[in-house]
Amino acid sequence: MPSPPADALGFLFVVPPFTGHVNPTVPVAARLVADGHRVAWTGVPGTVEHLLLDGATFLPATPPEVTGYAGEMAARRSDLRGAAAFKFLQEEVLLPLGDAMVDGVDAAVDAFGADVLVVDQQALAGAVVGRRRGLPWATSATTSAELVDPLAGLPLVAEAMHRRRVELQLAHGIPAHVAEAGDLRVSEHLLLAYTTAELVGPLAVEAPVTFVGPAIAGRPESDDFPWDRIDPSVPTVLVSLGTLNAEAGARFWQVAAEACRGQRWQAVFVAPPELVPDAPANVLVRRHVPQLALLHRVDAVVSHAGHNTVCESLAAGLPLVLAPIRDDQPVVADQVVQAGAGVRVRFARVRAEELRTAIATVLSDEELQAAAGRISKSFAAAGGPAAAASSLVALGSGGVGGTH
Questions:
Q1: What range does the domain containing 111 cover?
Q2: What's residue 39's pLDDT?
């Protein structure tokens, strides 16, 4: 194996224990490796290693007991909505997790020899360590919700969350004037946004932003999907609530099954089969699917408005029916609707007739389809993993700044 070039840099990805926040980093890391650089990840052990490149270096940032805690806390927020869910996520999950990870991330920097930190917005420890050590660090914004100020209408909640993030920095030795001036969710060096302005709209952050579009290419997928069950002559709809919400959607799956029953389209549900015990003949239920491959074989998507699923769908030029549940999902859903590429329904209250009408609309409305196509073209033009890797190398080589 050839030796890395003399100017090779070490990039340490600091990630939370959430699949959707790790997946976009993998193709970016693959591009960095292909260009001769070193990469590693750090986070909660036992939660993300299976998502990484073959032979990837993973450095635990927490003791084993944190694995169960993170999963338990994430699950407990499943019945919360709106500001309550956001506040719970920050106060009971992300801030305690950030505090627990700081020492481990600090040790990982030394063990790996990191030159640049690539810090997910929900892995606050990476930002703390970057600021404390004076390392160049980039924000990995796997959701666009934080780019448009999701708490603009709730200034007291926003201020309370800011104070907690300041306190986290102070507790780990960052001077007060630095902690007060900066936001752990937004690097002053570089913010990588896995989207484009065509979807996000006007920004609400003051940061060097580089829009790179979704980092999709090169992500490994297992494929045991029964492709022979999909009739290419019939419109196909993918219905997915994401990796954290599938089991929380028992009512939704029943409504979706009735919405599809006897219709002119076929559907693939990404759901636990036991939650759809009486699936219609035109509905295929699978616990897991090769989503990227499947998106090139369907005509529309019904989604919880998770940022990754939304961007992957729009990258394939597919309009969406959006049923946001919590966290950033209502913000992302509104972005899609404002961009003209989808319609929104109420996750907890939607009825079969309403969902059926929404699916029929996205399958037939040419304006929705055209808007999805425009966003797809903007994604392709943004450069994806190659553009992200190039910006990170420029940061590590002494250059900073982004492009709106």
A1: 10-213+383-396
A2: 98
Q: Is residue 221 part of a domain?
A: no
> Do residues 18 and 150 both lie within one domain?
yes
Position 206 scores a pLDDT of: 72
Mean pLDDT lowest for which of 240-254, 277-291, 317-331?
Answer: 240-254
> Which two three-digit tokens encode residue 311?
């961007």
Please check whether residues 259 and 127 belong to one and the same domain: no
Cα-flanking dihedrals φ and ψ of residue 287, to 5°? -70, -35
Render 208-233 in DSSP notation, one character per residue: -EEE-----TT--------GGGS-TT
207 and 89 part of one domain: yes
Answer yes or no: is pLDDT of 322 > 60: yes
Same domain membership, residue 104 and residue 48: yes
Please spell the DSSP secondary structure of 271-291, one letter per residue. Answer: S-GGG-TT--TTEEEES---H
Least confident range of 9-18, 76-85, 191-200: 76-85
Write the CB contacts of 174 (distance below 8 Å, at least 6 apart in sequence): 128, 131, 132
Residue linked to tokens 């919400």: 245
Give, in order, the Cα–Cα distances in Å from 19 to each of 16, 43, 167, 203, 347.
8, 12, 28, 26, 22
Are residues 200 and 58 part of one domain? yes
DSSP conformation letters of 292-360: HHHHTS-SEEEE---HHHHHHHHHTT--EEE---STTHHHHHHHHHHTTSEEE--TTT--HHHHHHHHH
Is 191 in the same domain as 83?
yes
Based on the domain organization, do 365 and 391 belong to the same domain?
no
Q: What is the pLDDT of residue 75?
A: 52
Q: Measured between alpha carbons, how far is 119 from 55 in angstroms, rounded to an integer?
A: 21
Q: Cβ-count burial of 149 within 10 angstroms (0-12 exposed, 13-18 middle, 19+ buried)?
A: middle
Q: Give the separation between CA 279 and CA 404, rounded to whole angstroms.
A: 46
CB neighbours (10 Å) of residue 55? 5
Task: Give the total number of structural domains in the chain.
Answer: 2
Phi, psi of 120 (to 5 degrees): -65, 150
Question: What tens digit of pLDDT does each residue of 45-90 get?
Answer: 988 899 998 899 999 999 876 666 555 555 555 555 556 667 777 8
Residue 246 confidence (pLDDT): 53
Check whether 2 has a pLDDT greater than 70. Answer: no
Torsion of CA 29, 33, 38, 42, to 10 degrees: 20
CATH code of the domain containing 296: 3.40.50.2000
